[in-house]
Design a protein that fits this description.
The complex is a heterodimer of chains A (about 1000) and B (about 290). Helix content of chain A is about 30%, strand content about 25%. Chain A contains 31 helices and 43 strands. In chain A, the strands form nine sheets. Chain A has a seven-stranded mixed sheet, sandwiched between helices. In chain A, strand 13 and strand 14 (about 315-320) form a beta hairpin. In chain A, helix 12 (about 330-345) runs parallel beside helix 13, helix 13 packs parallel to helix 16 and helix 23 packs parallel to helix 26 (about 855-870). The longest helix of chain A has 21 residues, at about 745-765. With about 290 residues, chain B is an alpha/beta fold. Chain B has eight helices and eleven strands. A nine-stranded mixed sheet of chain B has the order 2-1-3-4-11-10-9-6-7, with helices on both faces. In chain B, helix 1 links the parallel strand 1 (about 25-30) and strand 2. Residues about 1-15 of chain B have low confidence and may be disordered. The chains are: A alpha+beta (about 1000), B alpha/beta (about 290). At the A-B interface, helix 1, helix 2, helix 3, helix 13 and helix 16 of A face helix 1, helix 4 and strand 6 of B.
Chain lengths: ~1000, ~290
């Protein structure tokens, strides 16, 4: 690309101009986008509000088009003759205030890319396109209109907001430059200077790590070049190596009973835990694999964990977070989050085909007013995060089938965005290794300056100034680039003679530096950075190397297959390039730019050189809160709970996701007579012609920070319960761990993490549910302008998938028929700690301790309940969780369009009625049973405390002793609790 | 009426037979961003056809591939990212590079189905609603006459809707569905599905070219006349916003766990449409052979 502003046409020199085309709906045609913009402004509480907003699409074209061609583009390509009017230039603004929102130069603009491609196809001509949106606002002045746009329609990290129509004379262009690689005089720096370099250079390495690097270079007798430091910072980042979870920990405090691998009692009474992750989460998996679980095919080593599905197929599952980017630019952050997770699945083994996606969000309450400086309003975050997942997942053609939304005010500066993806692959393709001499092939999107320092950024703590400092880490995704790449990769995988490549991985955090560095770990690699196609000129070698531009994968391809792969890429309109070669004598990473060596690092330093620290962790048994003293009527508590944002319907979110695409969905997120009941888990039937299914569920461990051990056990139990309730075999469930924690340099915080990890070990072993993959996101805390630190509640997402032998035996949670009995399997205990009833009414009397998951009973009950479901004698099953038994019972009745009559004594059990109704004791299931099947079920569930609670009815009422409530009122409370 | 009260009765048996040798071929056109090609292939396969996916660029280079197809499917998805508007760019590529071969296929009487993004492409390419009875498609693609625009809610919506199959329709795909299932459901998943007739509604209705309608009280997007799908003057080319290809097994019904086991028999209406088209091709083939 050049900065050329003139061209010869017909022998005469004409100045190039930027053409502007504006497309608006015709008068009299409904402008749905304009109305939606107005509704968004109204929901955000914008004042003054315009009386109307009209929306128009704007296209800026830089290229050599004659009048006829321009008319073709304007009329045929950009406008719709039936409903729209396309004009060149700009309409007059009349009485309106006109605001235009355009992506900043360099920000991904998928629409512009697609229009460029279309014009190439139609006219055989390359033009350069930029797009924007024009808003005509009625009844407010220009300043108010600008303010509205900034609050609701644009994010100035990625958008320019223009007052009036924007019609530039020229596009800003980068220019080629070759910058000499700077050498950093690291050997001469003292410790303070090392720390300064780490922070100001956005390396985010600890002093010990910086010292380790200094001593390596002192020994090597030279100073590092910039690109080498960047590579080390990426590879050693928390995001890439999980150094906190893998570190050695000196833990002070009680441990759960039982023998624990890697735990050594020290003389001072503390416990040394060598590599926390390996001694807990991974230890459980390996012990289970030694003890008969033979269906784990790949755990912890690849981009996703893999288990056997049937004789020919395997399934893999990965979940990731994209918290920091989503805090600054929720739409792009969430979209690139799901995009990256999908690429992880594509880059697992020798490539898997994504077949399902999951999403779990934790945000601050939507009614939060005046968030601290540097934080976006939570409603905007949630709606934009949903839109990002929607636009990316739907475009990729992957059904989004399972999720959760959780609200806690401590997420104001650190929303959590978890994205999961499940892939299906042939069983003989679960592993790949690069061979010496393989070409390093990069595929997919071009490399730009976007996403620089994403990996190190994710390891930092957010502050009010991060939006300015880290705008370059924020990105917009382009799902179609990824979809095309997926199509090409699956074609290259499914060749008659086997895959055209020997290994594949995605370019995620750290970009090429991580992808090539990881793939070449055993072999070494030589890279010519100028070979990477760039989005625009002007990138330095370091920027190319660490850019986290989206939609790229790296493949190790035998030289003889490169041409065949190129052909497949061409057919699918996918760009690929040959960056160099895997393998060299000294197992080194060698980086060149235009033939000049710009970096050289030993793979040993990169992958094994990270200094091991001993970290301090502390935990003590918390004091139980003092009990409350007052009481409340069941009716008002029930209504508050049903409309509580953690419990109420998520339909307004779920319906924006395509959960039918691929045609394999069997149990969807919304079930029941009106399709509006909260399904416990999803089931897909991933293999055509086979009736075997895969259940997908989750349990979110959060909010029980007084003991994360108990919190994690309850979440594992919940995940298993959810899966069992739809018909999943609990003996064939694999789970994932995604830790989101506040800063772990604080021993108290790390102590909580240790407790959680111990819970993972005990929970996974007790339920025989191996962890197969995991990730962590630490430092989720926000420092406000006035120096206050807001820490998120420690949070662990347990995602689970498990086999369903025959999908036709699946059941759902909606009550099926009046006259059927409702039974509870499992005893209710008095512990109300962490329950929602205390969130809606904190002064309620009752036991404040946390519920304890019984590790004998919980797994045994899951198996027993699964067995009666498998027998076909259960009409519906529902997990008894957030809100407690009464909420779950009402959900079943609502989803079935029925009423319910409950026996107050049965609900109360050994407790008072409120405890019976609202305690959130784990390991409980609600089952709907035909009266004539009751004794059969009772016999099969002997020893699992089966209580008949009541009966479903036709009369559209909840009746329980003196309580009598209209089901419609309950339905309204539940339906309207969360609207975005 | 709720979804669960909607029963799908046993439909006519499908011509599918594992040993069948003379399976009609179905060309499934893919493009960057098309993502419902697999379920469309599976639906054709279950109905007894042999699906063959062909990328739009490959077809542009080998347009004769269309001349060999007995059936054509334009799948759903987000072709070219639905940049500018849903289906717009794919439609332009078709107009520029594939018009002649598609026109030949239409003139040959090839049944075509275009669900969702396929429908959006077909109307903008000028394939639908197409010329009046007796007239044929011209050498030059016509200006689009109808449109599918942003849903009234301006949001992408995924849900099942109740639909009706007008009894007077000439569409071969939906023949018989009205009688066998007076009230039926289909899944929708789109952001731009609101049908705008450009003044043609009455003539489309009168000529029996409305093939599928949303139930008046269950219209998800504000379509004119609640139109969910239309066909051309021959009744062979159908475009519709719902996804019949996602309703070929009863476990795809949104509340199938509520259905009695005797309702879980036979072909759901989605599959019945594909069976109709395959039967049509087979009977025409055997008629040609006898002649």
């Amino acid at each position: 690309m050049s900065g050329r502003r003139e061209s010869f046409r017909d022998g005469t020199l004409e100045p190039m101009v930027i053409h502007r085309i504006e497309v608006a709906t015709r008068d009299g045609v409904d402008d749905a986008r304009g109305r939606a913009a107005l509704a968004a402004a109204s929901a955000a509480g914008v004042d003054p509000l315009p009386s109307s907003i009209r929306c128009a699409r704007v296209y800026l074209l830089d290229g050599d088009l004659d009048a006829g061609e321009l008319e073709t583009v304007q009329k045929d390509l950009l406008g719709n003759p039936v409903t729209e009017e396309a004009i060149t230039g700009a309409r007059g603004s009349g009485q309106h205030s006109v605001i235009e929102v355009h992506p900043l130069p360099g920000v991904m603009d998928p629409d512009a890319d697609a229009v460029e491609l279309a014009i190439r196809s139609l006219l055989g001509r390359s033009v350069s396109i930029r797009t924007g949106v024009r808003y005509d606002m009625d009844g407010i002045d220009a300043a108010s209109a600008n303010d509205l746009a900034r609050r609701c329609l644009a994010n100035t990290l990625i958008h320019n907001v223009h007052d009036g129509p924007y019609h530039p004379d020229a596009f800003t262009q980068g220019t080629d430059r070759i910058v000499e690689m700077p050498i950093i005089p690291l050997r001469d720096l003292d410790d303070a200077e090392l720390q300064r370099l780490s922070r100001e250079g956005h390396l985010f390495l600890s002093l010990e790590e910086m010292q380790g690097i200094r001593s390596y270079y002192k020994q090597a007798g030279r100073d590092p070049r910039e690109i080498e430091l960047e590579t080390l910072a990426q590879t050693w980042s928390e995001h890439c190596v999980h150094k906190t979870l893998k570190s050695t920990i000196a833990y002070e405090g009680p441990l759960p009973s039982g023998e624990r691998p890697g735990h050594v009692r020290l003389e001072d009474g503390r416990t040394r835990i060598d590599n926390l992750l390996r001694s807990t989460v991974a230890a459980a998996t390996f012990e289970l694999m030694d003890d008969g679980i033979d269906w784990c095919l790949s755990v912890f080593v690849d981009n996703a964990g893999i288990i056997a599905f049937d004789d020919e197929h395997a399934v893999c599952f990965k979940a990731e977070t994209h918290n920091h980017p989503s805090a600054l630019e929720p739409y792009g952050g969430a979209a690139t989050g799901i995009g990256g997770c999908i690429r992880d699945v594509i880059g697992t083994g020798l490539a898997a085909k994504p077949v399902a996606a999951t999403d779990i969000f934790c945000v601050a309450p939507l009614d939060t007013t005046d968030p601290p400086a540097g934080c976006l309003q939570p409603r905007r975050i949630l709606s934009q995060v949903v839109a990002g997942v929607r636009d990316y997942g739907n475009r990729m053609g992957i059904p989004t089938l399972n999720g959760a939304v959780w609200f806690d005010e401590r997420h104001i500066g650190n929303p959590l965005v978890f994205c999961g993806c499940i892939g299906l692959m042939p069983r003989d393709m679960v592993a790949g290794d690069p061979k010496p001499g393989d070409r390093i092939i990069a595929m997919g999107g071009r490399t730009g300056r976007d996403g620089i320092h994403g990996a190190t950024f994710s390891s930092a703590e957010l502050t009010d100034s991060h939006a300015d400092e880290f705008s370059h880490a924020v990105q917009i995704g382009n799902a179609i680039t990824e979809k095309k790449m997926l199509d090409a990769i699956l074609e290259a995988r499914d060749q008659k003679d086997g895959p055209l490549y020997s290994a594949i991985t995605d370019c995620g955090a750290g970009g090429f530096s991580s992808a090539v560095g990881e793939m070449g770990e055993q072999l070494g690699a030589e890279v010519d950075l100028e070979k990477a196609p760039l989005k625009y000129a002007g990138l330095t070698a370091s920027e190319i190397w660490i850019s986290e531009a989206q939609e790229r994968m790296v493949l190790a391809v035998p030289a003889e297959n490169v041409a065949a792969l190129q052909k497949i890429c061409d057919a699918n309109e996918v760009e690929m390039c040959d960056l160099g070669q895997f393998g060299n004598e000294d197992r080194e990473l060698v980086l060149r730019h235009h033939g000049t060596e710009v970096g050289r690092l030993s793979m040993e330093l990169l992958h094994e050189g990270i200094p091991q620290l001993i970290r301090e962790a502390r935990w003590s048994v918390p004091e139980i809160e003092r009990e409350g003293t007052s009481t409340q009527p069941v009716e008002s508590l029930l209504l508050s709970l049903l409309s509580h944002p953690n419990i109420c319907s998520r339909e307004c979110i779920i319906r924006q996701y395509d959960h039918e695409v691929q045609g394999r969905s069997v149990i969807r997120p919304m079930v029941g007579v009106h399709g509006n009941g909260p399904g416990d888990a999803a089931v897909i039937k991933p293999v055509a012609g086979s009736s075997r299914g895969l259940g997908i569920g989750n349990g979110l461990a959060t909010g029980w920070e007084s003991d994360p051990y108990l919190m994690v056990l309850a979440a594992i139990d919940e995940c298993i319960r959810n899966l069992v309730c739809v018909g999943t075999d609990p003996t064939r469930v694999a789970i994932l761990d995604n830790f989101c924690w506040p800063g772990c340099n604080d021993p108290e915080s790390l102590g909580l993490l240790v407790r959680a990890a111990e819970g993972c070990y005990d929970g996974a072993k007790a339920y025989r549910a191996p962890f197969i993959s995991g990730k962590d996101s630490l430092n989720n805390q926000f420092t406000t302008e006035d120096g206050r630190t807001i820490r998120i509640p420690p949070t662990l997402l347990i995602s689970g998938m498990g086999l369903v032998e025959d999908v036709e035996r699946c059941i759902t949670m909606d009550a099926k028929r009046a006259g059927n009995m409702l039974v509870c399997v499992g005893e209710t205990t008095a512990a109300l700690g962490g329950s929602h009833v205390l969130k809606v009414y904190p002064d309620l009397f009752g036991d404040r301790s946390l519920p304890v998951t019984d590790l004998e009973i919980g797994p045994a009950r899951a198996k027993a309940v699964a067995a009666v479901i498998e027998q076909g004698i259960i009409q519906s099953a529902h997990d008894c969780s957030e809100g407690g038994l009464l909420v779950a019972a009402v959900e079943m009745a609502m989803a079935g369009g029925l009423g319910i009559t409950l026996e107050a004594n049965a609900v109360a059990g050994n407790h008072d009625l409120l405890t019976g109704c609202f305690s959130e004791t784990p390991s409980r299931y609600l089952l709907e049973i035909q009266p004539d099947m009751l004794e059969d079920v009772r016999a099969r569930l002997e020893g699992h405390s089966l209580t008949v609670l009541g009966q479903f009815t036709d009369d559209n009422k909840l009746v329980m002793s003196e309580v009598s409530m209209d089901m419609d009122a309950l339905q309204d409370a539940w339906t309207n609790g969360l609207l975005i | 009426m709720t979804l669960a009260q909607v029963l799908f009765k046993a439909q006519r048996p499908c011509p599918y037979n594992a040993d069948m040798t003379d399976r009609p071929t179905a060309l499934i056109l893919t493009a960057p961003g098309i993502n419902c090609d697999e379920e469309l292939c599976e639906a054709f396969m279950l109905a007894g056809a042999e699906p063959n996916r062909v990328h739009i660029n490959r077809l542009a280079a080998n347009p004769e591939l269309l001349d060999e197809a007995d059936l054509v499917g334009l799948p759903g998805g987000f072709s070219y990212g639905d940049a500018v508007a849903a289906g717009r760019i794919a439609a332009q590529v078709i107009r520029a590079h594939l018009w002649d071969s598609l026109r030949r296929a239409v003139e040959r009487g090839v049944p075509m189905i275009a669900p969702c993004n396929g429908f959006q492409i077909a109307v903008q390419a000028g394939l639908l609603p197409g010329p009046d009875v007796g007239a044929s498609l011209g050498d030059v693609p016509p200006t689009p006459q109808v449109a599918l625009v942003d849903n009234e809610s301006a949001r992408f919506i995924d849900r099942w809707v109740r639909v009706e199959y007008p009894s007077e329709t000439i569409c071969i795909w939906t023949q018989g569905l009205d009688a066998e299932s007076t009230d039926s459901v289909l899944p929708i998943a789109h952001g731009e599905g609101r049908f705008v007739s450009g003044g043609l509604l009455e003539s489309l209705e009168q000529s029996g070219r409305v093939a599928v309608r949303y139930a008046a009280d269950d219209d998800p997007n504000g379509s004119e006349g609640h139109v969910a799908g239309i066909c051309d003057a021959s009744g062979l080319v159908m475009g519709l916003m719902p996804h019949p290809e996602r309703y070929t097994r009863w476990t795809q019904h949104p509340s199938w766990t509520r259905l009695d086991s005797d309702c879980r028999q036979g072909n759901p209406p989605g599959l019945a449409m594909f069976c109709n088209a395959v039967s049509w091709v087979r009977s025409r083939k055997s008629a040609t052979m006898q002649a």
